[in-house]
Amino acid sequence: MMQIRVPYGRSFVSASVTALPGLDIIEAAETPGAADPAGAVRSALANLCGGATWADFAGARSVAITVNDKTRPVPHHQLLPPLLERLAALGIPDTAITFYVAVGTHPPMTRDEFPAILPGEILKRYQVVSHDAEDGDQLTNLGETSRGTPVWSNKAYVAADLKIVVGNLEPHQFVGFSGGVKGAAIGLSGLQTINRNHALMMHPDSQLGEYETNPARQDVEEIGAKMGIHLALNAILNQHRQIVHVLAGEPRAVMRAGVPLSRQVCQVGVASRYSLLITSPGGHPKDINIYQAQKALGHAALVARPGGTIILVAACPEGTGSPHYEEWMTGKKSYEEIIKRFSAEGFRIGPHKAYQIARDASRTRLLFCTGMDECLARALLLNPVRDFQAAVDEALPRLRPGERIGVLPHANSTIPYLI
Is domain 37-266 given the CATH code 3.10.180.10 in the classification? Predict the structure, then answer.
């Protein structure tokens, strides 16, 4: 008997299997964390990429720093103190610095939620505000990108003398990689901007793990340029969420240096497609809701056999994370209907999650192990099962003789590909 164990919420779930034909854990080779994470951050800040120097910003009277919301496991407690030390060394007072929580189209975070993402000392010393993509009074128009994306961005952030974005550089299912300007270019933009940019996910070149040739990602770069973002501070984490690399500097230079490093940490080849693939986003906060957990399904589908089974394991304590998605799904009866309606109506944020799920679940057999409301999960056509063991027991008899099981325990930060 063997145990299959995958992250689930803030813990793990396990299932026992007998007569196992073979089990492949689909993860890149173990990459150790930095021996001195604080030192790695300070070194990156002392050696900025792209020719930028701190002296360039000595006269800044206002500083805006973008931080990710509760759906991203960014080590702010390690990244921010050295950054703030640098700003203090330039003579910039605490009162000139504002943190912007980059929620994108997620619900704005309340002040009571800020301690979940920022250290208490920072909350005491600095102003922190949450973006709201649907509040037109917060936005300013900066024109259009070459791909026709209207750029509506947080006007207070754009007005700052020094604009910094802080976050992780990691795989993204259709923008290729997060990092660089993305935290602000998407996280602090208006709904219209995000909707038009994300519509580029339908382009065949908008693929996981692609950067230079990815139209969705290059549109993000143009948005960031129009916003005038000066610096990015990015961490590359291993599967234990330890800092492996830190990069800082001009945002495009950070991406050019960081993408190859991220691939080394996150990319893994597999010999053939799997008839049974077990996938987890990687636990909290990556499975905080369906909006985030869907990415694990998308990554798994890249190496799943058509007609095979994907077991998605995600706690989703906050449900879908998107009222627009829930509303649009009302009355939908099949994946085919979802795909047809979405294509006919045109791209919309929220419903795009329904499309992404239907696209992958229509090619495979989806079983969903979750803690979210069962009736809601069924209404969303997610096919929930009682628990992880029940899902595995249901899927095993469908395996052909000799077929192996694939397990993606940290799917959201893994780039699987066929070799």
Answer: no
SS (H, E, C) 233-262: EEEEECCCCCEEEEEEECHHHHHHHHHHHH
Alpha-carbon gap, residue 104 to 194, rounded angstroms: 8
Q: Is the dihedral of CA 335, 340, 345, 346 positive or negative?
A: positive
**CATH number for the domain formed by residue range(s) 2-29+271-418:** 3.90.226.30
pTM: 0.93
Domain boundaries defined on the chain? 2-29+271-418, 37-266
Contact 284, 316 (CB under 8 A): no
On the question of a cis peptide bond just before residue 285, with omega within 30 degrees of 0, the verdict is: yes
Spatial CB neighbours of 288, under 8 Å, sequence gap ≥ 6:
70, 71, 315, 316, 317, 318, 321
Give the CA distances from residue 322 to residues 76, 99, 289, 326, in Å, rounded to whole numbers and listed in that order.
25, 24, 9, 7
Give the residue carrying structure tokens 């908008």. 206
By the 8 A CB rule, do 383 and 362 touch? no
DSSP string, 328-367: HHTT---HHHHHHHHHHH---TTHHHHHHHHHHHTTSEEE
Token representation of residue 337: 């209907």
* Cα dihedral value 106, 142, 54, 182, nearest 10: 30
241 vs 226: CA distance, rounded Å: 32
How far does the chain reach from its first CA to its final CA, in angstroms? 30
The DSSP code sequence of 92-152 is --GGGEEEEEE-TTSPPPPGGGGGGTS-HHHHHHSEEEE--TT-GGGEEEEEE-TT--EEE
Q: What is the pLDDT of residues 208-260, one digit of tens each?
A: 999 999 999 999 999 999 999 999 999 999 999 999 999 999 999 999 999 99
Indicate if 37-266 has the same CATH topology as 2-29+271-418.
no
